[in-house]
Structure formats: structure tokens, C-alpha cells
Amino acid sequence: MLLVLGAVGGLLVVPAVVFVVRVGAGRRANSGLVGFVCVAASLLVVWSASGVLHAGALSLVVVSGIAAGWIDAYERRLPDLLILPLYPAVGSLLVATGDADLMLRAVVCAAAGIGLCGVGCATGQLGFGDLKLAGVLGLVLGWDSWGTAAVAVLATVVVGGVQAAVVLALGRHDFPYGPAMLTGAAVALAAAPLL
Hints:
Elements: H1 2-25, H2 31-48, H3 52-75, H4 80-83, H5 86-96, H6 100-122, H7 128-144, H8 146-169, H9 178-191
Helix pairs in contact: 1-2, 1-3, 2-3, 2-9, 3-5, 3-7, 5-7, 6-7, 7-8, 7-9, 8-9
């Protein structure tokens, strides 16, 4: 039953995601592809969430993340309007757990993500949008476990590396890193119940 609700929830947000991408990037995203991604991500939330509050936080990040990732693919930017509001929203859900150890782990993972991306920003390899996204992803992945956050970092490096190799082979030099980060997070969440 939860899987059906997750799939329906994913389908319900498709028009909103397509609209946000159209407004943010000035381009219309393929509704079928957006629908597939939204349903898959919603099912992933059902599969991996460690409770109702975590499911709520993941759902917020999924909807904003899909739209932001699409805009990043088109425009090479992660809009602050989609990323920054996630901090207080996810943070308040995290605080509502009342679990001090969980909160500490999530904040440490967010800080580590920001620190790693900060090095990338300092060297000119990543943008500040990637840095902001890393913090939010660190919160929701650290909420789950240290292992989930670590798998996300490794998966992001692999996905980003493959993406970079393809882009360079095509003779281009810039590419959005947000989609690789979001894909790495999805891989980690898929593996989370198995860790």
C-alpha cells in the first residue's frame, strides 16, 4: 500500500516540477521523463525512509532536488530559491525527532559535505549551488546513517567522474555537478536499507 501511495505522490508532483523547470530555465522538461524520475524517487523515499519525519524531509528534498537538478542541467546553476528553503524545513523536521545523536550526525555530515564542496569551489571546479546542495544532502543522508552519507560521496564521485569523461570526450569543458550529486544520493538511499 505504501508503494502505491509513493507512486501516486510522485505522479502528483510532476506538473509542479515541470512548471518550476519551465520558469527557472525557460525550457520545458519532458513530462514523461520527469514523471519517471518523480515516481522512482518517491518509491525510493518509501523504501529508504527511517520514519515519517525522515520521509517528509526526503520528500521535500526530492521535489526540490529534481527541479533544481533539471535546471542545473539546462542552465548550469542550482537556484537558491529551491535549495535554501530546504535548510529550515529539513532542520525543523530533524529537530522534531528529539534525537540528539541523530541531529549531531546529520549536522556533521552536512558540514562535511559543505567542506568537501568548499574545496571544489575554492579550486574553481564546483559552484556555490553545489556547496549549498551538499549541505542539504548531508542532512538527509546523515539522518539515515554515516554509511549512507559515505556511499553517497563515493557514488557522486563515480557518477561525476563518468559524466566528466563523457563531457570531455565530446569536446566540452563545463557540466553541471548537481545531477551527479543527486544521483549519488539516490544510489546511497537505495543501498541504505541494505547497509
